[in-house]
Design brief:
8 strands, eight-stranded parallel beta sheet, single chain, disordered N terminus, binds pyridoxal-5'-phosphate, globular
Amino acid sequence: MSAFKPVAATAILAKPDTAPNLEIAQRLEQVRMRIRAAERRFARPAGSVALLAVSKRQAPAKLRDAWRAGQHAFGESYLQEGLTKQEQLADLDLEWHFIGRIQGNKARAIAERFDWVHSLSDARHAERLNAHRPADRGPLQVCLQVNLSGEETKSGAGPDEVRKLLDCCRALPNLAVRGLMTLPAPARTLATQRRPFRALRELRDELATAQLPLNVLSMGMSDDLDAAIAEGATLVRIGTAIFGPRAAQTP
Ligand SMILES: *Cc1c(COP(=O)(O)O)cnc(C)c1O
């Protein structure tokens, strides 16, 4: 065996905690540039699309790198994993968004520990989140998740159910409904990607009132952010384009 095996470089790369990961900073900058380019291309005001870094199944060191590169809002899908990361990163001033499937018995921890929830689609969950929101944290910021494709397996309220859900949330003082969220099935072309996003915007336009303008449209991921921005997204939820492929399980 050669004595000159180049192990040093890989050894350094394998230790993300020892040095800032410049790759994350570069990917983050690329995503920001993609967002700015889409804003220009589709005549959206500069800076009108916020970036949520989706960090599910990514190691905490990567979130720290993203924070060093100026990212403050992070989205998590699995409650326990999210709570663990919050503890590991408690020294940073971060904004935490819950974007995963809500289970009734987890509503308390979500209400106590997150700033935003994007995946509310059930009135009973709304009531539990409201009941458990600590008074000193102010209202929980909420988007209602809408299932526009009617797929049984995808979560989200159907378009017909959203108005009822909205009326329920309106009466809950510890929830602030900010807008709508959708997670469409993957599609290949820009035109087909745009369809569900347009439908979400139109639904929002129908439901919005002066008291509840529903300004936030949480839509668009790594593969369809251009289509979402074309149709009015105000927040894109981006994971792999920033952090690379996810681990199969909680890291
Ligand atoms: C995982 C996830 C994302 C991010 O997906 P990418 O394709 O990695 O950008 C966005 N939104 C939700 C609800 C997710 O679960």
